[in-house]
Design goal:
Blueprint (H helix, E strand, L loop, with lengths): L1 E5 L2 E5 L6 H52 L3 E7 L10 E9 L8 H4 L5 E9 L4 E3 L7 H7 L5 E3 L5 E7 L19 E6 H6 L8 E6 L6 E4 L2
Antiparallel strand pairs: 1-2, 3-4, 3-8, 4-5, 6-9, 7-8, 9-10, 10-11
């Protein structure tokens, strides 16, 4: 309340402020808007990471196929599992390309993997922090095909496990046409680990699948 003078007299003027209920309503609206904005930014960030993860995988496949075709030799792709200390343990989170230090024209794994005969080409491509290549068979059947073959399994000095396959000199994959139960499906699924776990280890709404053609080694990216 304040006084206002009019023609020599004083009049009381009441200035109405916000009630407690109105203030609480405004605060609730602001908190809701902030939560929506935060969720939108988080969702956008995960979408960007998944896009980057898919691109990382695609880049490695392109490099390996190019080396195999241009050098007329076998080029190896290694897919590494997450370390035991990583919250993504049990899934795959990195890839690398290896090639022999001399031309090889066979997929003799014993010879190719012998000491000093394979060297890494470029850097290891590590997926963004939240991304995984899921190891679950329905979504990444290529991983399961490789795991089932002991000659394709890799164990690093730090205990990290991995699997490997080759691009042949003609660009095709050295993956068998059948896996004992039917034709092989050479697909890899990339998604966010948190969303994958929250969905009960099924593919969440935001994911990407890389389908590889065994005959020509080319691949296609599928996004929902």
């Amino acid at each position: 309340m304040k006084f206002r003078t009019t023609s020599g007299t004083k009049q009381r003027v009441f200035l109405r402020g916000m009630t407690l209920i109105e203030l609480l309503v405004v605060m609730a609206i602001m908190l809701t808007l902030l939560a929506l904005v935060g969720y939108s930014f988080q969702s956008f960030g995960r979408t960007t990471e998944i896009t980057n993860g898919i691109q990382d995988v695609a880049n490695v496949l392109n490099v390996a196929r190019q080396i195999a075709v241009s050098r007329n030799e076998y080029a190896q792709v290694r897919i590494y599992g997450a370390p035991a200390t990583d919250f993504r343990a049990g899934q795959f989170t990195a890839l690398a390309v290896f090639r022999a230090d001399a031309p090889y024209y066979t997929n003799d794994y014993t010879a190719l993997l012998s000491a000093g005969r394979m060297r890494q080409e470029g850097q290891i491509a590590r997926l963004p922090q939240s991304c995984i290549i899921t190891s679950n068979a329905p979504y990444s059947p290529l991983i399961q095909t490789l795991i089932s073959d002991s000659m394709r399994q890799i164990l690093l000095a730090d205990g990290t496990k991995g699997v490997a396959f080759y691009f042949k000199p003609d660009g095709s994959l050295d993956i068998p046409a059948t896996n004992g139960t039917g034709p092989t499906v050479n697909a890899l699924s990339i998604c966010a680990m948190q969303a994958f776990a929250a969905a009960g280890k099924t593919l969440p709404p935001n994911y990407g699948i890389i389908n590889m053609d065994r005959i020509n080694g080319r691949f296609q990216v599928v996004r929902p």
